[in-house]
Design a protein that fits this description.
The protein is an all-alpha fold and about 240 residues long. The protein contains ten helices and no strands. Bound molecules: fe (ii) ion (2 copies).
Length: about 240
């Protein structure tokens, strides 16, 4: 039997983490509360924007392989779930009011400034790899802040990180399966993606890197690791 193109994970966060998050949030200092609110809002909005990315990909006049759609659909389900978990954390910590909902609903994407990164399936898979790698690092960096809501929410974010790493792996596998013949272009393609950092974020899901948690070190490391893995894929047929 042919292996599926997208590896999927199983399991859900344990019970009780939202109650714990609510209790912990009440005990936070105003400064800690504000810091948490800022980071959670960025997460909430960015995972929300997956719907815009999905619609953009579906509307592109490009040819995609069935394996791409398999990876894409598994990705979309996960990102929707991440948004739901972060929404539950926000609700527990701050309550859910019409203002937050209105801010989310008012979001409008603009892919114009990064449209050149969507040349074809190979370029899009490289963009997916790069973005997920960078995301893993940003979530990891903020773990102490998530921990303010207790070990339960910290574990939820651990699950999110594992999903983002899996998305990276799925895009990389897709490149190995369908785009090996394009690997000599990797340096140019990843270079273009790296150079697009600094473009103001416009609800595009990818390259959502305006917030304070991001720095040039994360971008450089994501580009370096990706290029190294693509080089190994080219030389040996398997990523390291
Ligand atoms: Fe996510
Ligand atoms: Fe992801």
């Amino acid at each position: 039997m042919k292996a599926p193109a997208a590896r999927v994970r199983a399991g859900r966060p344990g019970f009780g983490w939202t109650e714990e998050a609510g209790r912990r949030a009440l005990a936070l200092s105003p400064a800690a509360r504000q810091g948490l609110r800022t980071i959670l809002w960025d997460d909430l909005a960015s995972e929300y924007d997956a719907r815009f990315y999905s619609a953009w990909i579906e509307g592109l006049d490009r040819t995609f392989t069935p394996e791409f759609w398999e990876v894409h659909e598994a990705w979309r389900e996960d990102e929707d779930r991440h948004h739901a978990w972060i929404r539950a954390a926000w609700t527990a910590a701050f309550g859910w009011d019409g203002e937050v909902e209105a801010r989310l609903e008012a979001r409008r994407p603009d892919f114009g400034p990064i449209a050149h990164l969507f040349e074809d399936e190979f370029a899009i898979a490289c963009l997916g790899c790069y973005d997920e790698l960078a995301t893993v690092r940003a979530y990891r960096k903020s773990l102490p802040v998530y921990g303010l809501l207790g070990p339960g929410y910290r574990a939820v974010v651990g699950r999110i990180i594992a999903d983002e790493a899996l998305h990276y792996r799925n895009y990389l596998d897709l490149i190995g399966r369908r785009h090996r013949h394009r690997l000599h272009e990797a340096e140019a393609v990843v270079g273009r993606i790296r150079a697009a950092e600094g473009t103001p974020y416009r609800a595009t899901f990818v390259l959502d890197h305006d917030d304070a948690v991001w720095d040039e070190g994360i971008f450089d490391e994501a580009a370096r690791i990706l290029l190294e893995q693509l080089r190994r894929l080219r030389e040996t047929g398997a990523p390291g």
